Amino acid sequence: MGSATSAEAPKKTPAAGASAGTTLRVTIMLALLLLLVGVAGDAALKLLEHAMRPPTADDTAQLVCTAFQRQDYTLLIQQVDTTPVPPATSGPLDVTALRTQLANLDTSDGKVTSCKYIKINSTDNPAQYSFTLQRAHAKSLTGLVIYIVHEPDGTWKIRSDSELANPPN
Asked: Which CATH class is domain 57-159?
């Protein structure tokens, strides 16, 4: 009788084991997918928070350094308000000449390898920054004073009477 009872016990079939393994794999894949969606959601939230924060003069100052180091003069020139600032400037800024001048500096003194800035006044409009640039072949640092003004559209732009647009000789 004891042998009859053991013969009647359910046997594990290969199909039942495969089904359990498939279920486990699907469960693990879904858990990983859920984790990835959570990480992506967190990253998207951080980007959204950054996008919703109003821009600041410091953001534009950082962009200036980034553009110099990447030699992205289109981006840099987009940050300049070309409106004249009398008596320092009498007409709109010649962006073509500025782009050529910046490219010539890269050729003669090398690419900007280091860029640092500090805010040197306590007012916000215009915010005044001192930039220190190190170029690859230059024997000394280049200093620029740049005024960043708050525009009516909420952006911050480099004022055309800044040394970026009119570098010292």
From this structure: alpha beta
